[in-house]
Amino acid sequence: MSTTELPLPTFADIEAAAARILGEVVRTPAVAAPRLAQQFGLAGLWLKLESQQFTGSFKDRGSLNKLKSLTPEEARRGVIAMSAGNHAQGVAYHAQRLGIPATIVMPEGTPFTKAERTAALGARVVLQGDTIDAAALHARELAKAHDLVFVHPYDDPLIVAGQGTIGLELLEQAPEIDVLVAPIGGGGLIGGIATALKARHPEIEIYGAECRLYPSMHHAVKKLPPNNGGQTLADGIAVKSPGVLTRAIVEKHVKDVLLLEEEQIEAAVNLLVEVQRLVTEGAGATALAAIAAYPEHFRGRKVAAIVSGGNIDSRLLAQVLMRGLFRDGRVVTLRIEISDQPGVLALVARLIGSTGGNIIEVHHQRMFFDLPAKRAEIDVVIETRNASHAEEIIAALEGAGFDTRRLSSRSDDVPN
């Protein structure tokens, strides 16, 4: 049966999936986020934390529902999937638990840690192709050659029904919501949740969130030509071709698909850590990014946002958090011109300290040709309370006769 012939999953299919996977996936919390709700002018905000699943993403649900639907003969032969991350781990983890042989085809450029983590869950990892589409083609070939069951990441009614169990939980945990926002990659997540919610509350509005670099579902439903590519923080939803099955559900149930810039997604990752003390991957923060970027859709309403996953590399998270400090003006780099004489650097340090600034780094430059021989420049990285505090420090330095300009600041500032 081709994808175009597959029936759309029903509410009964989602209920059957919930019974099938009961006790083998985490019933994730839907936590109230009153500070974020107040910040964005919402009547209420609930975060559905799929980042707390065993493998760190919602993929556990659909993968398990698919695997538990196999016949004994199919389970004996084994399964194969293509993925660069969360789907790979979901399939590998539950296949290992159920004693089903699993092969995961990943693109050759997949980060070593992701391939290693998948292999550690018992799957045979095959690196093939330079893109996920090339990996998918090879996975199909291996499935045919070795009579393996292909586990598609989103274009499968059983996968969609498994993800739809999130919607069943939301109906119990936050029955008062009138808007839902969910990330879209291939569309399995939003397709399943929308099917569940609309069956019981047709008045609920549902919005999808995609990164602007990979607007595959947005362009498909609006009948625009594909335009995908580039490096995105939200790599979990960087899908070039949305599902045919899931597109039909989105067209039926989703009010709009909202596109997010990279800086908006990055800011949402940072905000969830700063305000909610919640670590998410880029894709997991896109629902909150959409709420922040399109306030006209959500102001005054009771909103649920799906935090789809928390699998972010620690080094990348550290970089995002540090960039957030620079963006907010809580860390600034100042270039200060001084006379190259003993005691002047100490005077600058005292001035900064007297205003409450904390010096993190100092770089002393004497060899710039545009400076007089008896002058020098120092680049000082300073921790501040906020952007206004940074301006106070600059004013104090200039008041003491030190020409000062900012090298890094909020994105909407310009150097002094």
TrEMBL record:
**What cofactor does its activity depend on?**
pyridoxal 5'-phosphate
The protein's UniProt keywords, in alphabetical order, are: Lyase, Pyridoxal phosphate
Q: Which Gene3D superfamilies match?
A: 3.30.70.260, 3.40.50.1100
Q: Does the keyword rRNA-binding apply?
A: no
What GO terms in the biological process aspect are recorded for it?
Answer: isoleucine biosynthetic process; L-serine catabolic process; L-threonine catabolic process
What are the protein's GO molecular function terms? L-serine ammonia-lyase activity; threonine deaminase activity
> InterPro entries from the xrefs?
ACT-like_dom_sf (IPR045865), ACT_dom (IPR002912), ACT_ThrD-II-like (IPR044561), Ser/Thr_Dehydratase (IPR050147), Thr_deHydtase_catblc (IPR005789), TrpB-like_PALP (IPR001926), TrpB-like_PALP_sf (IPR036052)
Kindly state which reaction or reactions the protein catalyses.
Answer: L-serine = pyruvate + NH4(+)
PROSITE patterns in UniProt: ACT (PS51671)
Superkingdom classification of source? Bacteria
Task: Report any Pfam family annotated for this entry.
Answer: ACT_4
Outline the extent of the ACT domain: 333-409
Answer yes or no on keyword Lyase.
Answer: yes
> What family does this belong to?
Belongs to the serine/threonine dehydratase family.
Protein name, entry field: Threonine dehydratase
Question: Which organism's genome codes for this protein?
Answer: Dongia mobilis
